[in-house]
Amino acid sequence: MVDLPMRRAFFTLALLAVPALTAARAAPEVFVAYPPEGHRVAFDHVILEGSVPPGARLRVGGQPAQVGPDGLFILWWPLRVGTNDLRLVTTLNGQTGTRTLRVIRTATGPLPATPTSIDRKSVTPGAAYEFWDAARDSPDERRVPVSFRGSPGGRAAFRVGTGAWSPLPEVEPGRYEAAYVVPVAARLENAAVTVRLTGRDGRTLTATAPGPLTSTGEGLRTGTQRPGTVRGLGLNDAGNVTTTQEGKPFLYPRGGMTFTLVGRVGEDVRARLAPGVSVLISAKQLDVTPGIPAPATGGEVGLDAGPAEETPPVPLLPALPFTPLVPTSTPEGALPAGSPADAPGEDLRVRVPLGGARVPFTVAQEGEGRRLALTLYGLVTPPTLAAPLADPLIAGGKIETVALGVTRLTLDLTQAQTWGFTAGYEGDDLLLTVRRPPTLDPVRPLAGRVIVLDPGHGGTQFGGAGSLRVPEKDLTLPIARRVAELLRAQGADAVLTRDADVTLGLYERGLLAEEKGADLLVSIHANALPDGRDPRGIRGPEVYFTHPQAQAPAAAILAALHRTLPDLGPGQGLKPGADLALTRPTTQPSLLVETAYLTDPGNLRVLMDPGRRERFAQAIAAGITDFYADQARED
Questions:
Q1: pTM of the model
Q2: Angle, helices 601-608/610-634, rounded to nearest 10 degrees
Q3: Which of 88, 163, 280, 546 has its CA 20 to 30 A from that of 258?
Q4: How far apart, in whole angstroms, are the C-alpha atoms of residue 277 and residue 271?
């Protein structure tokens, strides 16, 4: 299971706080795996899960609750607004055990119409906005959302500083929203944003947003990604990311990458990549100096004959699914494919001369993975392709200017399956590196392949709540160990990120795959639902991946899971475009397997059965084998 921190943290405490049942204990015990005591939830139900001794009965709030023969209960329990003290009573052999659990349902509906009120914590902008070059910002870049939550049916307005009041429409009952576009000529210095609401009872209230506005035209600055802050070649560390102004990931900076800074939003600075294209970056990851970066020009793109003797490049990996710029006209500058040539044994290395500039860029797979698109921002003169790039891996290449200050280099590949790619600065240039397909033995396609297997969580990271008192971390480890054994028997070099109950950081796992030169990274987890999701009927395996190069192995593993364990349920199948730490790496195909749902009684019991865990391991190993066998046949 991924990205459910509250559920993970509570299970850790619950498991440590509740001693194991012993024969000497007279009263049966109620073990609650989730939710935690005092949990606040904004929904009308909560997943209530845990266990009682086998054969015991359970009542919640005086109502009988469904309990399995093994004592497991996973309930979708209704909540009233406010405090819910759930009294859980279990009986076994004439003995009774009780537990009272407090769960608080927060109100999410509109405020009362009368008396007129404003939820002052809801007023936006919630952070200060600064505009250092509004004259060259587009209207969208000068847009500041203004909103608040208040009594429904009122008349609302807002103003900036001492300016005129502007209407603030009610977009849904009790929700008032609009946008303020900072005028180009405005001179604002910590100008307050004030909202006003006149309610049905005639009362008028005002409130001030936490974020003031400043627009002084004080000048541009340069932001440089601090050296040593970016780990790995293809990790895509979420600790170093730029986002759109809506919060979507855009690109992952590399050490030394330079940005033209044009403003600030809270703790983030705003960088202008090209006219009309802005991103937000944490100021903590940059060195900021006055002035703008030196003008950057591109040179003639070419191929390296072999690996350079300098230090390895530090790459930038693909922007996640957001793509702000799409050519609106027929691409120009397309070049025909080069004639086949004897390729060097090393990776394909495409060199883009930049004269030492460290311009922002993204790399993304397109066309189901058969195309790589390198997008460069801020070049005064784009690079050129004077001659076709002659390599057996390249079907064709082109360079096009898609917008002012935005250049795209695209490579069409001859192989349907991509085996890893990175991009980063090397010397005065930008280097795009593509791994060549491995040579596979049709008889033993796994021979010599380096497969990194990651048992999810571990140590202090318990993972999903184990309602039968076995946490996710102790379910994934035996499966991964057995997968490794099965792959090694077929000649693979199977590497475990952990082989014991130890704490391991998310990015340490991806770094290990890079260090080992992995051909494939597979992270193994068990799934669970967040608050607000009814668990009934949601079951089965799912496989997550970010980049198209991981789709084929993901599909092979999912097919093997369905084939080997058909009773798990359908799951939601393949989950492309995932934004997960273990799927973002691109030095190799990287994917995450959610074997089954911990929040489904049947799925959980399958995971708890050692014999069925063996079948999980066999299915994952079979899926990996099938993928490589298919590739060997295509070769």
A1: 0.89
A2: 90
A3: 546
A4: 8
